[in-house]
Amino acid sequence: MKIIIDAFGGDNAPLEVLKGSAMAVEEYGVEVILAGDQEKIKQCAGENGVSMKNMEILHASQVIPVEADPTALLKEYSESSMAVGLKALKEGKGDAFVSAGSTGALVVGSSLIVKRMKGVRRAGIATVIPSAGGNYLLMDAGANAECHADMLVQFGVMGSVYMKQLMGIANPRVGLVNIGTEETKGLDVQRETYHLLQKAPVNFIGNVEARGLPLGECDVAVADGFTGNIILKLTEGLAKFLTGELKEMLFQSTKTKLGALLIKDSLAGFKKKLDYKEHGGAPLLGTAKPVFKAHGSSDARAFKNAIRQAKTYVENNVVSEMETALAQLKTKEAEAAPKAE
Amino acid sequence: MKIIIDAFGGDNAPLEVLKGSAMAVEEYGVEVILAGDQEKIKQCAGENGVSMKNMEILHASQVIPVEADPTALLKEYSESSMAVGLKALKEGKGDAFVSAGSTGALVVGSSLIVKRMKGVRRAGIATVIPSAGGNYLLMDAGANAECHADMLVQFGVMGSVYMKQLMGIANPRVGLVNIGTEETKGLDVQRETYHLLQKAPVNFIGNVEARGLPLGECDVAVADGFTGNIILKLTEGLAKFLTGELKEMLFQSTKTKLGALLIKDSLAGFKKKLDYKEHGGAPLLGTAKPVFKAHGSSDARAFKNAIRQAKTYVENNVVSEMETALAQLKTKEAEAAPKAE
Which residue has the higher pLDDT, B280 or B327? Predict the structure, then answer.
């Protein structure tokens, strides 16, 4: 299996990308195609003693800045490591693509270069977030600020397949993020989505309030990208705030410092549980081939984990499983539609 | 000063309401008017030895259930403790009203019985939430799921006055909750609100991402009620999840249990910081007279704190300060509007 990597995406590129790729080659037996400036990659690997075993380089002269307009990927940045990597995926040079670069550019580029699966209205970013029950998948985590009901239903169907195939949950509980549990709650788009999800080929458990997300009330949380971004970012901020407060508390006195020493190992486990780097990457669901967004601040371990995820995604035929589920959704919708006289 | 209390609102009514009221009478020197069933109140106070000093009862034969349609407050539940209390506030029998009953009914009842301040489009619920910097005010926390830009701007202006007058922040930083910091981010309503807030008589600091809220990036967070509800409920759920995980971690082994013992006092301080009961009540901003929503699960201490807040609100003339600020907003908007030829 060949995984294409954007060697110049993220805050720690290219060194951490190279190190993570080398770890993945070693641990998972994959081959890696690095998209990026050939000279710089070789120099960085050489200076830092990173093995290039089972890695090849696909030269790309540019890097798209995070602040660039996403559509610039197809114009002034068409020779960037991200654009070159996506084109290589489209052409079948590799099986999946991983980038820690601009989310907006990756979403636009994937839709326009790699294209979407048949019938998919929009591709969205799915993010796995820790919860009391283990994890839940948030879809969409920010790609599409405004969503129609038919997009949200597809998010639920694709998210369900993902949790089944990649996280091993037999019958994922799909919840619609809303401001109350009754089906009349929310805005028109939530009310319409509620009824469509009831008829969709998923285990729809109804509306889920935001309070229930970290408490493990569902396995797939369906939301528009605006709400999803609020959920993702607030989760990050609160985890940072609370661990900061906790740290301050543990260093208050000699007594608490001694206490901190005794709970040190358990505390490390606690932090690990909340660590997004364990999951590594967020898949773009809806693209015709597997694309993963790694966190902008990813280190080598995060890249390695993102590559592992991409490998599992390919091995489990997630794309074709999603296509089957989406075809079922279409059939069910056609059956439910009022017949012409 | 007389504070009117809904004696039958919330999960712990009437006992905790009575106890909290008695504590407030004692500590803050206020008088209390209890709206609710006269016999039941007297019996409950008698059986539990709660002093009725400086408290009078305003008889109300009904209680509106939390699940009732909010508009039922004006029809089949017009004799409920909430409706009777709101009417007493309108008639000037007391200076402020506190209820832990149905949020929806309180919002509808306040707008229709007590009425809104002149020029206010909608009343919203403002909630004080702990953050790294101390606290921030979230407005609207869930009263109006869908908001227009002119409503959001008023929320910012009223929230700013609240943080200045009640929390002693000289020049509150008002932020617009959005999915990015650039002014082009979000949906049309955010983009329009951004430009209106730039001209409003507040210290507008621009868009704030959800990540920045718990990290203390603003003092007033302006959001529509859908987004606000997501923020409020997710904060509750995450605090519960993380403290639960922390507790589990502390009881993992004999060693960690010993550690837990050493950090016990500091841990209590940590929990107190995250405790909504310290703040007691969420004000409805925009009503012509002070109305406070106490949390449904409020205990005596939460009621006492809500009464303290109501007292401070009245003493600081928050309503008239808001009216002045809203008049300034109107003047500025008129100045900024294109003149007719």
Answer: B327
Instruction: Over range B274-303, report the average pLDDT.
Output: 87
User: A167-200: buried (b, 16+ CB within 10 Å) or exposed (e) per residue?
Assistant: bebeebbbbbbbbbeeeebbeeebbbbbebbeeb
Neighboring chain B residues of A210 at a CB cutoff of 8 Å = 229-234, 237
Q: Which residues of B touch A146 (CB under 8 A)?
A: 187
ipTM value for the complex: 0.92
What token pair was written down for B117? 């301040």
**What pTM, to 2 d.p., does this model score?**
0.93
Number of C-beta neighbours around residue B86 at 10 A: 28
* pLDDT at position A193: 97
**CA gap B137, B213 in Å, rounded:** 10
Contacts across the A-B interface (CB distance below 8 Å): 167
DSSP per residue, B11-53? TTTTHHHHHHHHHHHHHH--EEEEEE-HHHHHHHHHHHT---T
Phi, psi of A315 (to 5 degrees): -60, -35
Q: Which helix (H) or strand (E) holds A203?
A: strand A203-208
Closest residue of A to B228, CA-based? Answer: A179
Cα A243 to Cα A134, A238, A240, A259, B153: the distances in Å are: 19, 8, 5, 16, 33
Task: Give tens-digit pLDDT for A103-155.
Answer: 999 999 999 999 999 999 999 999 999 999 789 999 999 999 999 999 999 99
Alpha helices in chain B (DSSP H): 15-28, 38-48, 81-90, 103-109, 149-167, 188-199, 225-250, 254-262, 264-273, 300-315, 318-336
Q: What is the pLDDT averaged over residues A6-14?
A: 95
CA distance B99 to B282: 10
Using CB atoms within 10 A of its CB, is residue B335 exposed (0-12), middle (13-18) or buried (19+)?
exposed
* Total Cβ atoms within 10 A of residue A212: 21
Looking at the DSSP bridge assignments, the partners of residue A283 are: A292
Quick one: pLDDT band at residue A252, thresholds 50, 70, 90?
Answer: confident
Tokens of B68: 């009732």
Provide, as residue numbers in chain B, all residues whose Cβ is less than 8 Å from the Cβ of A209: 229, 233
d(CA A131, CA A322) in angstroms, rounded, equals 25
- Pairing relation of β-strands A173-177 and A134-139? unpaired
Say yes or no for a CB contact (<8 Å) between A239 and B235.
Answer: no
Is the Cβ pair A211, B237 closer than 8 Å? yes
List strands edge to edge, sheet with B220-222.
Answer: B55-59, B31-36, B2-6, B96-99, B291-294, B281-285, B124-131, B134-139, B220-222, B173-177, B203-208
What is the distance of C-alpha A303 from the center of its chain? 13
Given this model, what pLDDT does residue B340 score? 53
Q: CB-based contacts of A188: which residues, under 8 Å, 6+ apart? A: none
How many helices (H) and strands (E) are present in chain A, helices listed first?
10, 11
**pLDDT (tens digit, 9 = 90+) per residue, A170-183?**
999 999 999 999 99
Window 122-141 of A: residues touching B by CB (8 A cutoff) are 131-132
Which of A179, A233, A260 is closest, CB to CB, to B210?
A233
Distance of CA A157 to the CA centre of its chain: 16
Between strands B220-222 and B173-177, the pairing is parallel
Give the up-direction half-sphere exposure of residue B88: CA atoms within 13 A in the CB hemisphere: 28
Q: Which of these, A304, A328, A327, A316, lies nearest to A164 by C-alpha position?
A: A316
Over pLDDT 70: what percentage of chain B? Answer: 97
- Is the minimum CB–CB distance between A103 and chain B shorter than 8 Å? no
